[in-house]
Design goal:
Number of helices: 4
Radius of gyration: 15 Å
Strand content: 25-35%
Shape: globular
CATH superfamily: P-loop containing nucleotide triphosphate hydrolases
Order of helices and strands: EHEHEEHEEEH
Largest sheet: 7 strands, mixed
Structural class: alpha/beta
CATH architecture: 3-Layer(aba) Sandwich
Helix content: 25-40%
Strand order of the largest sheet: 1-7-6-2-5-4-3
CATH topology: Rossmann fold
Length: 162
């Protein structure tokens, strides 16, 4: 299933992430697709805020993963496989993260660990619109089991856009 929208800038991309974060219960996996500088960390920053995480969220490009703990007792683990040609031991860390019910796992550049990612995940594509570098077309692919979450998101997002 697919839901699509647009973001007119970083603040909206972050707000969309926050709305999703508020609905998460733990155990979810989110795979992010975008070019370098495409809004993945911005989206994750909003997601963290929605999970009541007050720490500053930064890109894990050089550290491969970062962990954040929020007030809701849900941990956010943010993985970035951009620099890896094979996942190695980090694939095992991701597998453990995915299996923990109080963890939301966010994965960037997941092609190298595609066989580790579950089918039951949100896949979010952030694509720049050619005429404006701040505007993003956002496509969220989701399984039937996450339909309620996406319907709630759509309703909240539409209210913000009015």
């Amino acid at each position: 299933m697919i839901w699509q929208t647009r973001s007119t800038g970083s603040a909206e991309t972050e707000r969309l992430g926050e709305l999703i974060g508020k609905s998460l219960k733990g155990g979810e996996v989110i795979e992010l697709h975008a070019d370098l500088g495409g809004g993945k960390t911005t989206f994750t920053r909003g997601l963290a805020r929605g999970l009541d995480i007050e720490q500053n969220v930064t890109s894990p490009t050089f550290t491969i993963s970062r962990t954040y703990q929020g007030k809701r007792k849900i941990e956010l683990r943010h993985f970035d496989f951009y620099r890896l040609h094979e996942a190695g031991v980090v694939a095992k860390q991701l597998e453990e993260s995915i299996s923990e019910p109080n963890v939301v796992s966010v994965v960037e550049w997941g092609k190298v660990i595609n066989d580790v990612l579950p089918l039951n995940k949100l896949t979010i594509n952030l694509t720049p619109v050619s005429d404006d570098t701040e505007v993003r077309q956002i496509k969220i692919e989701y399984p039937e089991s996450m339909s309620k979450l996406i319907r709630e998101l759509e309703n909240k997002w539409e209210k913000l856009k009015l």
